């Protein structure tokens, strides 16, 4: 079994090119835009800025997708918001010609209580006819769909045939390679220390590899944005999640899976391993870093045999932790940083960043380039983090 600190932290990263974006020998003296952070949001922002013709330099403290973007379960479950529509993602994949393992598998969420079962049924009943279909299945129907027994404490399930999965590290790496083809420069293993205003119109981005001048800066560094943007501190906070990956098993779960609204979530990867996360209620710790939390890991290990009687024995191949960035109102922050000139933020996606990631970057790049605030940007205006400022722009 692989432990943290011994190379790629997750099975997604271990199965990807180990270092597709090596650290630069030196940084360029400046760029129109410096993006801080090389997860999905930073890479998406850099991609769209470069596609619009901007000169962009992305700086990542570690390697691309080394944070939440390479540590998630790769469950791509779109909601009803426009920014979660996968049309843009499909278009980018087709235009740029890379395969991030984006597959339609369906998604089944099992209700662990009668209350959640009622909520699932109400959600199905009010689903707009124009939205992708959603079905409420009783327990027998869930067992039939999965072709395995489902424990009696599950009342039923919510089946979304249009659920997808993705290989998250390949998504970030593929999009970053496309951004580079459009002219973006990528500096990994380069930590941004401070951003300060210069005497001229440019910002100075101080890093572990020297200082870069930038006309604008985008903070895509997850919960770390609070370090650079004091007005957002308190509105965004880190929450630790735990994941494990089993050794390859025969095909057991075709769809992406969850309990309730994601208290446990899992999917079977193409190599047969089951990647499962959640069980946060088992934690006895307040830590919010990327270290393992043994009680949660134990809960994850016992979950499958408890939920599915007769579940085969399995070995755990890899364990990891990742940090989610939760905002106070559950909506991400996409737009101008309050009270800061020429500084922007794209963060706060919590445990649900894959479906909105591509459109969020496009919306931010458009706002920076044209001043037009369309798509997801108005509803995610960071001004709401500052009491009394919302609606003033
Ligand atoms: C355990 C777990 C499971 C999840 N499961 C799912 C799922 O199944 N489906 C889903 O849709 N979402 C899921 N998510 C959420 C999803 O992964 C995130 O919403 C998304 O990856 C956030 O991307 P990001 O680019 O904002 O952050 P990150 O990927 O964390 O990227 C931020 C980057 O900034 C870098 N950085 C920080 N500070 C600096 C600095 N000073 N200088 C330079 N770089 C810096 C970090 O090293 C990091 O690489 C999960 C998250 C976790 C943690």
How would you explain this protein's 3D organization?
With 393 residues, the protein is an alpha+beta fold. It has nine helices and 19 strands. The strands form three sheets. Strands 1, 2, 9, 10, 11, 12, 18 and 19 form an eight-stranded mixed beta sheet that branches. The termini are far apart. Bound molecules: flavin-adenine dinucleotide. The site of flavin-adenine dinucleotide (FAD) has 40 residues, from helix 2, strand 13, strand 17 and helix 9.
Task: Please give a quick description of this structure.
With 393 residues, the protein is α+β, with helices and mostly antiparallel strands.
Label this structure with key terms.
393 residues, alpha+beta, FAD/NAD(P)-binding domain, eight-stranded mixed beta sheet, 9 helices, globular, binds flavin-adenine dinucleotide
**Helix-strand category:** alpha+beta
| CATH-defined superfamily of the largest domain | FAD/NAD(P)-binding domain
Element-level helix/strand string: HEHEEHEEHEHEEHEEEEHEEEEHEEEH
Principal-axes geometry comes out as globular
**Strand tally, please?**
19
Distance between the termini: 52 Å
Unreliable runs: none
């Amino acid at each position: 079994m692989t432990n943290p600190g011994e190379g790629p932290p997750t099975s997604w990263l271990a199965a990807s090119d180990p270092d597709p974006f090596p650290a630069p020998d030196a940084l360029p003296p400046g760029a129109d835009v410096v993006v801080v952070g090389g997860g999905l949001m930073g890479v998406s922002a850099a991609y769209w800025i470069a596609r619009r013709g901007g000169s962009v330099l992305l700086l990542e403290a570690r390697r691309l997708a080394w944070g939440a973007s390479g540590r998630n379960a790769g469950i791509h479950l779109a909601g009803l918001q426009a920014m979660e529509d996968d049309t843009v993602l499909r278009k980018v994949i087709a235009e740029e010609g890379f395969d991030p393992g984006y597959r339609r598998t369906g998604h089944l969420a099992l209700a662990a209580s009668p209350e959640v079962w009622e909520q699932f049924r109400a959600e199905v009943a009010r689903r707009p006819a124009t939205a992708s279909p959603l079905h409420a299945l009783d327990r027998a129907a869930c067992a039939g769909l999965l072709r395995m027994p489902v424990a009696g404490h599950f009342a039923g399930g919510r089946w979304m045939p249009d659920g997808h999965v993705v290989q998250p590290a390949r998504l970030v790496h593929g999009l970053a390679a496309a951004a580079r083809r459009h002219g973006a420069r990528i500096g990994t293993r380069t930590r941004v220390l401070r951003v300060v205003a210069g005497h001229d119109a440019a910002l100075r981005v101080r890093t572990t590899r020297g200082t870069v001048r930038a006309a604008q800066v985008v903070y895509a560094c997850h919960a770390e944005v609070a370090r650079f943007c004091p007005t957002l501190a308190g509105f965004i906070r880190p929450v630790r999640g735990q994941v494990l990956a089993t050794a390859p098993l025969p095909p057991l779960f075709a769809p992406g899976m969850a309990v309730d609204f994601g208290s446990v979530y899992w999917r079977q990867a193409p190599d047969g391993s089951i990647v499962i996360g959640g069980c946060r209620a088992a934690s006895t710790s307040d830590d919010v870093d990327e270290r393992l939390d043994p009680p949660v890991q134990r809960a994850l290990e016992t979950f499958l045999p408890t939920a599915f009687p007769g579940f085969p024995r399995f070995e755990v191949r890899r364990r990891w932790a990742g940090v989610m960035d939760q905002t106070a109102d559950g909506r991400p922050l996409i737009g101008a940083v309050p009270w800061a000139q020429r500084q922007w933020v794209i963060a706060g996606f919590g445990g649900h960043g894959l479906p909105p990631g591509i459109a969020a970057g496009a919306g931010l790049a458009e706002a920076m380039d044209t001043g037009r605030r369309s798509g997801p940007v108005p509803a995610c205006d960071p001004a709401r983090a500052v009491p009394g400022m919302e609606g003033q722009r």
